[in-house]
User: What shape does this take?
Amino acid sequence: MTTQTQIQLTPRTISKADARRFLLAYHGLTPNYELKTKEDILSYISKVGCIQYDPLNVVGQNADLVLQSRVADYNRNDLRELLYTDRKLIDFWDKNMSICPVDSWPYYSRFRQGYQGWCNENAATVSLVRSEIERNGALCSGDFDLNEKVSWYYGPTRLARAALEGMYYSGDLIIHHKVGTRKYYDLAERHISSKLLKAVDPNSTEVEYHDWLVHRRIGSIGLLWNRPSDAWLGIGSFKVLERTQAFQRLLEKGQIIQIQIADLATPFYIRTEDEPLLEQTLTELQSHPSARILAPLDNMLWDRKLIQVLFDFEYRWEVYKPVVERTYGYYVLPVVYGDRIVARLEPEKHRSGDSFVIKNWWWEAGVEVNDEIKEAMRECFSRFAAYLGTNAVKADFLE
Assistant: This one.
């Protein structure tokens, strides 16, 4: 107990630059593209718990944008195979709709139980849907003539869609595959091992569950503070007091480490297993800086107030704002160079065979635009274009 108290009273102090370098290394954004294979993709998603899914596709969906910034020569088919062929990943609800390792299935028991009541209340519809899928294989909502409008958590929707989603959230179905953004559902027992399906919730009490949630979200971002933010989305009724108590218990159990960042009053936390990486980033020489284009819902950006404090970068994803209220544009992506976020870009919507076109670009204030950073950007754009399936880039501002 003495050691645990000392950890709380004497947190380690690092600089903002150290914190940035740790976050970038934690997320595989430095050094240069060490992630290469499907196994590396699975390992990264297992480390952070999940990556967020979003159906919008301007230059790829969010999950692909997360991976292209980390994986050398990223091929979007790798993620699809991990999801729908290998079945090592699964679409499920975590921080909003997400992609998670299938072996995390038992930990979502409480979430699934929350939808069991709806399925019980609509047993006849659930039975009909299940029978059709048993007979025909994976189906989508358009395959059912269940057109009655019903109340659903995001508003009125077709009964077919509510039934499929309710059965999916309760664990009876999984997403078998997608065609574009259309989801096809199949029976969970056809694709998930009976061992996982029958596994009991590893968190037998609410206290254990809260500790797991906080530990998991710290791991999702890498370095986190106990403040309200989008980092806690998807958790449901998880109050500030409960979150604070979970932080304290995790400290006392030695599962997290408190970090003080110079000139900031609020303490930060990392998982204890990530301390060796922190040590490494504090002692190793910085490599030649590279540039990366980040996803709008990148794990590292989940807590945007944290990013503003550490990177001096204010980011708002403005896709759902009216045009007149946007500061930058509809679909704007941050750009990392070295240990800073130095710019943001707005791409044109990409279509197969087209060039990768940057229609708007904004350097951050104070960035020294020299030949070295321009060359890093050209290399970054070339990699991004290759991910899109082209070798043509149009970025006039670098000419």
Remarks:
- The chain is about 40% helix and 20% strand.
- The mean pLDDT is 94.
